[in-house]
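Predict the structure of MOB3B kinase.
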Amino acid sequence: LKQVFNKDKTFRPKRKFEPGTQRFELHKRAQASLNSGVDLKAAVQLPSGEDQNDWVAVHVVDFFNRINLIYGTICEFCTEKTCPVMSGGPKYEYRWQDDVKYKKPTALPAPQYMNLLMDWIEVQINNEDIFPTCVGKCDEEVL
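Done. Here is the predicted structure for MOB3B kinase.
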């Protein structure tokens, strides 16, 4: 189990919401609803009076964190030797393209593809232009 949570190999730090912020409160509400065993459709419904973009952002970050944990538990079993192709079954092969290092869709071993994907998602989530951390009352305080 120690290898599963080796932070240099498998575990990526969670993006945290600052306590006292609107997003932190939305995160707590989302966590409570997901852990209560309620209908998932109701759990992701936009709470009355909340901003849709903030609500979506909270769920995107939570989803990323959960996928990170799941991936961390299986990545030691999927090596470049055992998983030479990133696929979705026998009919689908995923290829990586980032227009920087990989200008054309490129076949990669699954672990390499997943590492590039998780890094790319993390960059998007940490991009203040896409997922600003200061919203709602923070905007009013700046004015």
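Residues 79-131 form one domain.
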